[in-house]
Amino acid sequence: QWDRAGGNLLQSFDDALFFEAVVRNNGFGAASRATGIPKSKLSRRVKQLEDRLGVRLIERTTHRFSVTEAG
């Protein structure tokens, strides 16, 4: 199955789980350590989820992490 943006529905579900892990662990680095998934992969997949949804879910800066209202 494919979502409206042309992505695989299972990938979309995985991306949502990656987003949840990042939020639960308060950041990409902590989520990476907790899940064993590379930080770069978590960041890339959350970005793909944001692109598919058309909203920013996480504000990223070098030293700060915050969930947006949409997130």
Rg for CA atoms: 12 Å
How many angstroms does the end-to-end distance come to?
25 Å
Q: Average pLDDT across residues? A: 83
Structural class designation: mainly alpha
Largest sheet: 2 strands, antiparallel
Q: Report helical residue fraction.
A: 40-55%
- Provide the spatial order of strands within the biggest beta sheet: 1-2
* DSSP, total strands: 2
Strand content: 5-15%
H/E topology pattern = HHHEE
Folded structure, characterized:
It contains three helices and two strands; from the N terminus they run H-H-H-E-E. With 71 residues, the protein is mainly alpha-helical. The protein has a two-stranded antiparallel sheet. Helix 2 packs across helix 3. It is globular and about 30 Å long. It starts with 8 loop residues before the first helix and ends with a strand. The mean pLDDT is 83.
List descriptors.
71 residues, mainly alpha, two-stranded antiparallel ribbon, 3 helices, 2 strands, 55% helix, 8% strand, globular
Topology diagram in text:
Layout: H1 9-24, H2 28-35, H3 39-53, E1 58-60, E2 65-67
Antiparallel strand pairs: 1-2
Summarize the structure.
By secondary structure, the chain is mainly alpha-helical. It has three helices and two strands, in the order αααββ. 55% of the residues lie in helices and 8% in strands.
